[in-house]
Amino acid sequence: MKALDIAICGCGTAGLAAALLLHRQGHRVRIFERFETPRPLGSGLILQPTGLGVLSELGLGDAAIALGARIDRLFGRVMPSNRVVLDVRYSALGRDWHGVALQRPALFALLHQAVTSAGIDIVPRVEIATVERAGEQSVPRGLDGTRLGSFDLVVDALGARSPLAAARIKRKVLPYGALWANIPWPQAGSFSANALEQRYFRASRMAGLLPIGSRGGGEPRMAAFFWSLRRDQFPAWRARSIADWKRDVERLWPETAAATASIIDHDQLVFAQYDHFTLRTPYTDGLVHIGDAGRSTSPQLGQGANMALLDALALARALQREDPLLERLAHYRRLRFWHVRLFQAASAMFTPFYQSDSRLLPFVRDWLAAPLSRLPIGDMVLARLVAGMTVAPLGSARFEAYRGRA
Ligand SMILES: Cc1cc2nc3c(=O)[nH]c(=O)nc-3n(C[C@H](O)[C@H](O)[C@H](O)COP(=O)(O)OP(=O)(O)OC[C@H]3O[C@@H](n4cnc5c(N)ncnc54)[C@H](O)[C@@H]3O)c2cc1C
């Protein structure tokens, strides 16, 4: 296999994982990133057995598991009735299956450290604007028009707002986003240290608490707290006092009062907006889109970072072939096609059951979907969906999802 010159645009989960995998295959890799010091944005996330499988292949699985919180169950009650309407257990797949929730900075640091130890070049303070073709080469340019070199392949890992994919995307900004904050893990109270727990009122209110482990080095264990909010209500939320908003939170979920005591200022909460789109063909001549740059959705099914890791691995597997480059990129698309299609469709379908103004959808969720999910087959179907294992994550390519030791 001929070694390629590869520019990776974006130093997030997808970009860092792709850089490591492609460097290990012998390609010459350079990463471009807009930030002076690359850093992760956001709160915490769940690594599914799929994402953990990719990290294990990178030799980082055990470190991620040691830092994070083991997640065995996703659990939700509707208020004020207190009925359980979501109860997904990974153990429906076998007793050794589980997820791991991590602080974003912890995942970022693991990947970033591995990239720097491998000696991969990261070029900071570069805002990528375009990529153009010059003969057989691809040339990325910065915002000021500077040419950033000439490469056999440019990998777009710039996230959901990638300017390299923008012209080809029909972007839908979802009506609901969420406020996110990292808070100390509540020692007191009845919260499970191994579950994502949620409370709902219809589909218009939702709060969640996710244990996300520690950043290592003696740092304390933390939790991610989130509160669903309609985009157009964000200015009104900012105008209210935090104490006033907390009264809403406590009305929905009184037990979180002590846990959220550390939130005293609006700026401790980050408002995340969610886009939904899927690129039909995530590549052109000399350019391939991976991670959120190739598709994006709400985090309701908790798959985004896992999909980014799977994309990176699929690209590495496809580039190992001896075919012309464009055919190898077509193979990358084939490897991920059904997995991406299924999860994008499932996310589009499920999100309004949890985040919308509908009165009908939460009714169906509570009185039809919840009882069905408790049937023996129903719990397995849901667990496979959450684990990212409904269809083969890498199509025909070899892939082993992570299964722990029970
Ligand atoms: C609040 C929230 C909760 C989530 N929860 C989960 C979860 O539980 N499980 C899960 O799997 N996923 C979750 N996700 C989704 C997950 O975070 C994303 O899918 C994942 O981070 C995508 O990784 P990426 O590398 O493609 O993009 P990103 O992480 O967005 O990385 C893009 C990188 O490109 C850089 N960049 C952007 N534009 C430019 C430019 N023009 N020039 C140079 N550099 C640029 C950015 O600075 C960044 O470093 C969640 C997302 C959100 C917002």
Please provide a written account of the structure:
- Helices cover 32% and strands 26% of the residues.
- With 406 residues, the protein is α+β, with helices and mostly antiparallel strands.
- The strands form five sheets. The chain has a seven-stranded mixed β-sheet. Strands 8-2-1-11-20-19 form a six-stranded mixed β-sheet, with helices on one face. Strands 3-7-4 form a three-stranded antiparallel β-sheet.
- The radius of gyration is 21 Å and the shape is globular.
- The structure holds flavin-adenine dinucleotide (FAD).
- Flavin-adenine dinucleotide is lined by residues 9-15, 32-35, 38, 42-43, 45-46, 126-128, 157-159, 163, 180, 272, 291-293, 299, 302-306, 308.
Short description:
The protein is an alpha+beta fold and 406 residues long.
Question: Descriptors for this entry?
Answer:
binds flavin-adenine dinucleotide, alpha+beta, 10 helices, single chain, 406 residues, globular, seven-stranded mixed sheet, six-stranded mixed sheet
Radius of gyration of CA atoms, rounded to a whole number: 21 Å
Provide the β-strand percentage band. 25-35%
The poorly predicted ranges are none
**What share of the residues lie within helices?**
25-40%
What is the overall number of helices? 10
- Distinct ligand kinds: flavin-adenine dinucleotide
Tell me the overall shape: globular
Given the helix and strand composition, which structural class is it? alpha+beta
Q: Characterize the main sheet.
A: 7 strands, mixed
- Overall mean pLDDT stands at 95
